[in-house]
Each structure stands twice: as structure tokens, then as C-alpha cells.
Amino acid sequence: MKKKDYHEINQYKDALFPVEIYRVSEQGIFPFGRGLRDFHWHDELQFTLAVQGSLTLQADSGQYFLNEGEAAFINSGMIHAVIKLSEHGRYASLNFPYKLLSFFPGSRMEKTSVLPYVTGSCPPVVILRPETEWQKAALDLLQEINMLWNDNSITQNEYLISIKIAALWYTLITHLPAERMNSVSVDIVRRERLQLMLSYIYDHFSEDIALADMAYSAHISVGECCRIFREHLQTTPYQFLTEYRVRKSIELLSSDLSISEIARRCGYNQTSNYIAKFKIMIGCTPAQYRKCI
Questions:
Q1: 13-46: per-residue pLDDT in tens?
Q2: Which CATH number fits domain 188-292: 1.20.1260.10, 1.10.10.60, 1.10.540.10, 3.40.50.970?
Q3: How far apart are CA 257 and CA 254, in angstroms?
Q4: Sheet containing 20-25: which strands, arranged edge to edge?
Q5: Where are the domains of the chain?
Q6: Is there a contact between 46 and 93 (Cβ–Cβ < 8 Å)?
Q7: How far apart are the first and last CA of the chain?
Q8: Is-contact 71 47, C-beta < 8 A?
Q9: Can you give the pTM of this predicted structure?
């Protein structure tokens, strides 16, 4: 089983400057990527800033609420998604490879100030709020980077943006409690198993999937499968599958496909079952939702 599209490979517009800011709202994500309510992982480090409104982030088996102007650092390889966004809410996610912080491969900076923090993904998540002085300093740097992106002055300011990213990283790592670095809060093996099961669901959601199939994709028992979903995503495998199927069906409702065909493509043998699940999750029927598109 390959962890492919959901192990996100960021396609940078400029290979000579591998940095990107993804802007996300209920309307979508730009540039194209995996956005709202879409669990995924990537090798890059990420800072997610609540630009407007509030959001709830799920990562490292925890949920984190961010008000406007607050942010979260998400370490390399963490399975995560913004699962809730307030009305008219927007957020921006700054992604960059950790090699950007090393200055050159094998440097002392890489060995002492980068790899110890990204190896094993410790710390997995750090929340930044303006009430704490050092966190406000980090938020200010993140806002400055975001403004440079907004002004479309990237090509003139790659070096300045890189300096600010390095300063942001330095501010973060110099204020992490020592005891936090001495313990790995995420079971790496379990995270990799969850990645395999998510990839299986994403690849086979249109088929008749059994709980045993999900467990087998990660070579674990059904009981361990349920425990991993519960501990890391606060849900059951079936509930996750149901919500993913409904989200995928929403993408098809703007097409000319019939409701019954959409149900079939999203893994429902009975259209009535699909309509019932959709109504529970969205609050209306697929046909009613389609009229509002």
C-alpha cells in the first residue's frame, strides 16, 4: 500500500525558492492543495495563521482552537487538517522544507538547531498566541511574511523572507521547554499505520470497504485500527469513511450526474442510505444542497 497523494508533495512555483503560502476558505484553496477538512501530511514544516475568523485544527491526536491572529506550528510528517472554520473565515499556511533552515547540508546549524526538532516530529504542534511575549514576536514575523506574499513582492524579497523564516524558527526553538524535547509525544509507528489506513480509504472510498480491510492495509488488528483512529482523530474508522464519502460527493453535486450515480461513485449501494448520511452531516438533502450551488 503506497502513501501517495495524501502524503502531500508540494509543487512549488519556483524550484529555486521552495516556499509557499496556501490560502484557504470555505470556497477552496489557492494554490491547489489539500485544504479544509482534508487530513494529510507532508515533509515540510508548517505555520498556519488564522487570518480572519476562528478555526479548529486537529493534529497529533489533539484539537486546537485558534482565534483570528493566532497561529499553530505543525511539525514534519504530522497528520493534520483544519476541521472547522468560522463563517467567512480564512487561514494561511506557510510551508517550507527544513533544509531552508540549515543554510547548507551537514552544517552545524542543521545538526544542532534543525534535525533534533524535526526528527521524530518533536514538538508535534506548538500554538502561538499574542498574550505571551515571545509568541507575539513569532506571530509578528509570520504576519510580515504573509504581508510580503500579499503584496506579490516575493521575487524581490526571497532573501528577506528566508531571513524572517529563520528568525521565526529561532524564536520557536529557543522557547521550547527542555522537558518537551526529552519525550516524543507521538508514537511514530502508529502514525505511519494511520497514514497507510487513510491512504487506503482515500483510494477505495468508492468501494465496499470493511473494517477488516482498513486494518489489513496497515497489517494490524481491527481493535488496533479502532484505537488508532480514536486516539489520533477522535473518531471511528467508519465515521471517518462516511464523512469523507459525503465530502467527496459534494464535489460531484455541481456536475450533471444524478444523485443515485453520485451515491454509487461514493461507495453507497443504496441511494437512500447516502441521502440519510448526507442529511445528518450537512443538514439538508443532496438535492437541496445542489439547488444552492
A1: 777 889 999 999 998 898 888 888 889 988 899 9
A2: 1.10.10.60
A3: 8
A4: 28-30, 20-25, 90-96, 45-52, 71-74, 125-128
A5: 20-181, 188-292
A6: yes
A7: 36
A8: yes
A9: 0.77
